[in-house]
Amino acid sequence: MPRVKVNDINIYYELHGPEDGEVLVLSNGIMMSTASWYKQTPVLSSHLRLLLYDCRGMWQSDHPAGPYSMEQHADDLAGLLDALGIARAHIGGISYGSEVSLMFALRHPERVQSLIVIDGVPEVTPLLRAQTLPWRMAAERGDAELLLRTSVPFNYSEAYIAANQAGIDSSVPLFARIDMRSFVAMMDAFTTYHITEQLSQIQCPTLIVAGEQDLIKGPRFAEMMAERIPACEYVLVPGAGHALCLDKPDPLNTLLLGFVLKHSGAAG
Fold it and tell me: Could you tell me the domains of the chain?
């Protein structure tokens, strides 16, 4: 498995697609791994050089003791790009990964060819903190099933839950593999995150994507970002819940591919 030393930890990564393709980085949601992009990887890597990775505390990367921060995650990503010889890339992510991407765009703007924010937020409101607190509590107790059950209503649309209930029910063993200590550290990094006043500093082409039925990080936050980021496009995906990459993969893949190619080096 490919891992590189970055900021005193080992980061797991995967590269897919043509070596000379436009580089698109996708950062995971907090409960995701690189495998969670399985509905994007074959499509996007047919045209792009796709970089997937686990941030510190996730799955196949190292799990150092906290605290963590979004600034630290952003600098880890910069170190990963350095190690791979990638000077500049299209930077994207979903949920927790989108917040890492936003922070990266603020801390390393010269390295961002374009920015893609999928179901992300620029700050944690009291309601959002209350919605996610049960996740932290479940992780503190080491209760994988409770973590799964408290996240399902917020992560998926009603239609997705109805069509995939058996798969959801069988996910408890997967959730049991989450490092709960690191998960708590990531939750704490998330709940102290607030960059709303800095959004106007993001000058690169930006795509904001939100699920219409996202109950946790939905249109309200997307509109907040779209109003403040100058070179911004905003797309609301009908019928999609929070886990857009699973819920509505086809429209998301089309959006990602089209946006990256529009802002590619070849496109000028």
Answer: 3-123+194-262 (3.40.50.1820)
